[in-house]
């Protein structure tokens, strides 16, 4: 065969192979059925990843306070996020990304590690947390709870989380701050009546960068420009670099990862009876945070089927539970589903292919975390604020005329962002719903699972 003929044969094989591979991918992830494309999933993945990239720096910084080696924690953070997000994409075909959870990592560093004598035992508790929640998934408890939640309360959870995300963005941009006087007053008297929040310095570079990003994204959304959120973050990052808020990494942009924390979790030591109250508190937070996150992402992307159910829900919840244990085993703290996934869903992602792409980006960060850390919080804040806005669309579908569900829904809307806790917001709403129904003599309207959840929250709040 001459050179020209050989070249034509290779070209023909490549031409046949590429469409076949694309068709297989489209079928595997149901791209056509969900009205999406590979390009849209990739664009959404980049948006999700950039809003989550802060965890690559924040998580090891927090865990290092408990004695976890910083570089090893950084590698474990990226690796655990990559592994667990890949499991979600391939195992559940749902556009959800996972990483070590903020709040849970602080619990590990500042409560579990000091009370158990070291971060290894704290990570052991995280491993047990994942196994307990997985057992609840396998027997159908976690799925039953989600299905038992009244529709308007589910919508309130979605909107409340949207407000929570926007609140986080405002804080990251320093557009909302805790007044210094409040900190001093509460330090002297924990019961002092002082303003909890106030406006930040609107002349600060970070606030200006964030406001620029919000304006850019808003204009692009109004114009229905594809990739509006991603473009807004790119503009904000460029402005941050120009103002000196962000910097190109010094020295090498790649590094060989360290995995000193891998399999260091002391699971046996965590099984002591005196640690069971600690384990209960972790399980409660993990259990209900994810229910809220999955509900919000499904509502944002209209991923529920005709009867309002989320396809492959048990697989989603099971993978999330396993991910907590994976995070503990790798020494990265509990890995959980990230509400920032809504950024990708808002940008068009609808399938697990989005999660596969996010996993690949996190995988690259095992070696290239300095590059990803270049995007400052002020540049991701606009995405969080505008995603919060998009998630608030569901508020118009809540029936505020039906007071027995509207009042609990309002309580969720109010307390979820202001307590800075998805679990507390859901708990207050559940308890209010059950109490109001019982007071009206409508006990038959309360699903047994909802009643059990309300009692569990009462016990949790009493013991916390």
Descriptive overview:
The protein has 464 residues and is an all-alpha fold. The chain has one domain (32-463). Helices cover 69% and strands 2% of the residues. The chain has helices at residues 3-28, 38-52, 55-63, 70-92, 104-116, 119-138, 141-148, 151-172, 180-188, 205-222, 228-243, 267-270, 276-301, 313-330, 341-346, 352-372, 377-391, 403-418, 422-439, 448-463; strands at residues 98-100, 176-177, 198-199, 335-337. It has a two-stranded antiparallel sheet with strand order 1-4. Strands 2-3 form a two-stranded antiparallel ribbon. Helix 2 crosses helix 16 (352-372), helix 4 (70-92) packs antiparallel against helix 16 (352-372) and helix 6 runs antiparallel to helix 14 (313-330). The longest helix has 26 residues, at 3-28. The relative contact order is 0.20. The mean pLDDT is 82.
List the helices and strands and how they pair.
Blueprint: H1 3-28, H2 38-52, H3 55-63, H4 70-92, E1 98-100, H5 104-116, H6 119-138, H7 141-148, H8 151-172, E2 176-177, H9 180-188, E3 198-199, H10 205-222, H11 228-243, H12 267-270, H13 276-301, H14 313-330, E4 335-337, H15 341-346, H16 352-372, H17 377-391, H18 403-418, H19 422-439, H20 448-463
Antiparallel strand pairs: 1-4, 2-3
Helix pairs in contact: 2-16, 3-4, 4-14, 4-16, 5-6, 6-13, 6-14, 7-20, 8-13, 8-17, 8-18, 8-19, 10-11, 10-17, 11-17, 13-14, 13-20, 18-19, 19-20
């Amino acid at each position: 065969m001459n050179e020209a003929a050989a070249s034509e044969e290779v070209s023909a094989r490549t031409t046949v192979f590429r469409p076949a591979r694309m068709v297989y991918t489209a079928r595997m992830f149901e791209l056509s059925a969900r009205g999406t494309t590979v390009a849209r999933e990739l664009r959404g993945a980049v948006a999700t990843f950039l809003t989550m990239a802060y965890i690559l720096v924040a998580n090891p910084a927090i865990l290092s306070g408990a004695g976890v080696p910083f570089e090893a924690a950084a590698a474990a953070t990226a690796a655990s996020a990559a592994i667990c997000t890949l499991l979600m994409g391939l195992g559940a075909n749902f556009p959800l990304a996972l990483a070590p959870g903020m709040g849970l990592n602080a619990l590990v560093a500042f409560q579990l590690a000091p009370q158990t004598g070291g971060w290894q035992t704290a990570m052991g508790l995280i491993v047990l947390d994942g196994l307990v929640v997985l057992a609840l998934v396998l027997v159908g408890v976690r799925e039953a709870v989600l299905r038992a939640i009244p529709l308007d309360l589910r919508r309130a959870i979605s909107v409340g989380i949207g407000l929570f995300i926007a609140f986080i963005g405002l804080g990251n941009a320093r557009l909302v701050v805790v007044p210094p006087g409040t900190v001093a007053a509460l330090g002297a008297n924990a019961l002092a009546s002082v303003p909890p929040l106030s406006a930040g310095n609107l002349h600060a570079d970070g606030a200006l960068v964030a406001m620029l990003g919000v304006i850019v994204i808003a204009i692009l959304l109004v114009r229905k420009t594809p990739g509006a959120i991603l473009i807004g973050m790119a503009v904000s990052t460029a402005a941050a670099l120009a103002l000196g808020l962000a910097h190109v990494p010094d020295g090498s942009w790649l590094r060989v990862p360290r995995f000193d924390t891998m399999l260091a979790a002391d699971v046996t030591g965590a099984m002591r009876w005196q640690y069971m109250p600690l384990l209960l508190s972790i399980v409660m937070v993990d259990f209900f945070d994810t229910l809220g996150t999955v509900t919000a992402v499904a509502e944002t992307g209209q991923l529920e089927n005709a009867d309002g159910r989320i396809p492959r829900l048990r697989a989603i919840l099971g993978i999330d539970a396993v991910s907590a244990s994976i995070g503990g085993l790798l020494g990265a703290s509990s890995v959980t589903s990230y509400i920032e996934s809504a950024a990708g869903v808002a940008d068009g992602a609808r399938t697990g292919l989005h999660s596969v792409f996010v996993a690949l980006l996190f995988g690259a960060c095992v070696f290239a975390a300095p590059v990803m850390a270049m995007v400052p919080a002020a540049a991701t804040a606009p995405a969080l604020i505008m995603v919060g806005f998009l998630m608030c669309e569901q508020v118009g579908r809540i029936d505020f005329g039906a007071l027995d569900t509207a009042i609990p829904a309002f309580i969720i809307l109010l307390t979820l962002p202001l307590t800075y806790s998805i679990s507390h917001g859901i708990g207050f709403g559940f308890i209010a719903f059950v109490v109001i129904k019982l007071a009206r003599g409508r006990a038959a309207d309360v699903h047994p699972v909802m009643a059990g959840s309300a009692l569990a929250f009462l016990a949790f709040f009493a013991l916390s």
